[in-house]
Fold:
Amino acid sequence: MPTGIAIRDVREQLFDAAERILLRDGANALTSRAVTTEAGVAKGVLHRHFEDFDAFLADLVLDRVGRIEIRSRALRESAGTGSVLDNLTAALTGLFGTIALRIVGLVIARDALRARLREARGPGVPVLREATAMVARYLAAERGLGRIPADADVDLLAPTLVGAAHLLFTDAEDATPGTEEVRRVVAAVVAVG
Structure:
């Protein structure tokens, strides 16, 4: 790209390029050169906007985690509508059927990235931590409405659901799990119909 031509929303352009690489080729293929090539910009563009590549990756993860927070509000607002089983199945399928699974792999694979994220957001694996909070808040709302038992331990059910769904999607090498597979897991963990 010629010098002196302004690039609109360069951060989002770089983030979108990184996401495409993660989805297509996985975390091992994610390099600063691959991102700038995919984005169609000079390599120096990334380094003008970010301290280093791990800073770029940390901002990418935090940006994508922000999208989970939007999903969380929508799930919480669905409390009292539809069925608990359908709401949780849709939320978990929607979450792990996206870039979220690749982000978890990226965070686990890069120690420096994990350290930066721990500094920024505290302990836990981003995406999994936010997904667990999302499910716990939803279950608490449903418990408050009497749609799940009053003694349901939402702080135990939420990580169990997220962990089971994560494993279900992680284990799917050739095809993502179908809605029925996720639904069966949710029904077994939450024991609702």
